[in-house]
Design goal:
The chain has 11 helices and 15 strands. The protein has 397 residues and is of the alpha/beta class. The chain has an 8-stranded mixed sheet with strand order 11-10-6-9-8-7-14-15, with helices on one face. It has a 3-stranded parallel sheet with strand order 3-4-5, sandwiched between helices. Helix 4 runs parallel beside helix 5 and helix 6 packs across helix 8.
Length: 397
């Protein structure tokens, strides 16, 4: 039995059902590994989406069949039904992203993949090259890039604060989530790939055309995840901190960054603590994404700091979904709109790399995540990045 999600209605399914109502997508399919879960999923979709949002159509094909208990290749049967120019989303365990994305890209299908897109720089670069070869968009669902506060903060950091000097981020989730995560935590991925990826991407985004990371070193805390009642593998990190040294391109001045993520936090007023501090030569920025000054207290759930800027779930006056301005919805709709524009020839793939978190625009984030993992595995060794003649990261040592 998994832990309760902080997204009771869901995000991806709801967004695509709404995009279908708006006429931007047509047929929808869902692929998993256990077909026996689909009757319960359909019941959930009907109760929590269709009956809430004015009878919103939640019909979709499902793979594998309802009587199939296990089929790890069901995604192939689903993707084989698509044609070039169609879209797919990948929200699966971290170590499965590469195989699924590659299968889709080679068939000319546009891809939206959750963070981290892949776990290694080599896989990231290979997918970038395949996407360019087949002319398809691969976008990473770094939805914080659509948060109005983060957009404003990054714009100010890039244009008004001078050389980068210091960045510090923190993101956590409550330890009860390990009831779900223990299926893969410390086995196929870690808390840094899962949560640090968000703010590492925000920092890398702010440093586009401005600077590059030179090296990273990582450390981790243990004691909660591998103990009762979670029993993750011995040594599974509860908290991971990556420290990165950066270089400003023009001045060659140095900057330093600390990225920390944890899944051993207590239950609090928010599901996920998330904040960052950026300091440049001419000023600083502090953003607390967890607290937007909006608190709700009920007999059932107690005190909560809520964030409707991400997903606004209350129906609008007409009874339909009314969360089009939320940055969770915008991330999905921007991907779909970009694919439509590519298919229509009104935008070129290379134009999108500076506008949205394409795979090509997020190489540095994956490099830092992988090097951080390598540092942990080597007992805290500092990893130095290697670059080609054009300044692109090619590896680390």
């Amino acid at each position: 039995k998994g832990s309760k999600s902080d997204k009771k209605v869901g995000v991806i399914g709801l967004c695509f059902f709404e995009l279908r109502r708006l006429g931007k997508v047509e047929n929808i399919a869902m692929a998993g590994t256990n077909g026996k879960k689909f009757p319960g999923i359909r019941e959930h979709l009907t109760k929590n989406i269709s009956q809430v949002y004015n009878g919103l159509d939640v019909s979709c094909a499902t793979y594998p069949a309802d009587d199939v208990a296990r089929d790890a290749d069901a995604f192939k049967a689903a993707l084989d039904q698509l044609k070039p120019g169609d879209v797919t989303t990948i929200f699966t365990p971290d170590d499965t992203h590469f195989e699924i994305a590659k299968y889709a890209v080679e068939r000319g299908i546009h891809v939206l993949v959750t963070k981290p897109p892949v776990k290694t720089l080599a896989h990231h670069i290979e997918l970038v090259q395949l996407a360019e070869k087949h002319g398809v968009l691969v976008m990473v669902e770094y939805h914080k890039r659509f948060d109005p506060c983060y957009i404003d903060a990054v714009n100010k950091a890039q244009k008004h604060l001078g050389d980068f000097g210091y960045f510090q981020s923190f993101m956590s989730q409550p330890k009860f989530q390990l009831e779900t995560f223990k299926a893969w935590a410390g086995i196929s991925s870690d808390i840094s790939y899962y949560l640090n990826s968000h703010h590492i991407d925000v920092h890398c985004w702010s440093m586009q055309e401005k600077g590059r990371p030179l090296s990273v070193v990582a450390s981790g805390a243990t004691g909660v995840a591998h103990a009762e009642p979670y029993n993750c593998p011995k040594g599974t990190e509860d908290t991971i901190t990556i420290m990165a040294d950066w270089e400003n391109t023009a001045s060659k001045n140095r900057g330093t960054a600390l990225y920390t993520s944890s899944w051993s936090a207590p239950k609090a007023d928010v599901h996920s603590q998330q904040r960052f501090h950026y300091m440049g030569a001419s000023g600083e920025i502090t953003v607390d994404q967890a607290h937007r000054g909006y608190f709700v207290c009920t007999d059932k759930d107690g005190l909560a700091s809520v964030n409707p800027l991400y997903m606004a779930y209350m129906p609008g006056p007409d009874g339909n979904f009314n969360g089009h301005s939320g940055y969770g919805f915008k991330s999905i709709s921007t991907f779909v709109d970009s694919c439509i524009a590519l298919n229509n020839g009104t935008v070129k793939l290379e134009d999108l790399h500076t506008r949205i978190p394409t795979l090509k625009a997020t190489v540095t984030t994956t490099a830092i995540l992988e090097a951080g993992r390598a540092s942990l595995d080597s007992g805290g060794k500092r990893m130095h990045f290697k670059f080609d003649g054009d300044g692109n990261i090619t590896g680390y040592a």
